[in-house]
Write a structure and sequence with these properties.
Blueprint lengths: L20 E6 L3 E9 L7 E10 H20 L10
Length: 85
């Protein structure tokens, strides 16, 4: 897609998913991102509720978009890259 093109985003039927654990399984053909919730009673148990499968080019665009958003939040002073204590 060319940068000057705009997209119409329709999200009326989009589901909201919540996750406190994300996993990645990457091979030369695709990246699979798992979204899950860690069980508060059993911290070693994660209930994965969704997988997102992406081609490698899509995964790279996703990673670039996430990195840009993180850098923007850092510039605004909202977050820091320092690990939590």
């Amino acid at each position: 897609m060319k940068p000057q093109e705009s997209l119409e985003i329709i999200d009326e039927e989009a589901q909201s998913l919540f996750s406190n654990l994300i996993s990645f399984h990457v091979n030369p053909e695709e990246a699979c991102m798992g979204l899950g919730i860690r069980d508060i009673r059993e911290p070693n148990v994660v209930n994965v509720h969704s997988y997102i499968h992406m081609s490698i080019p899509h995964f790279l665009r996703f990673a670039e978009a996430v990195n840009k958003q993180v850098n923007l939040l850092i510039e605004k002073g909202v977050i820091t890259r320092e690990p939590e204590q």
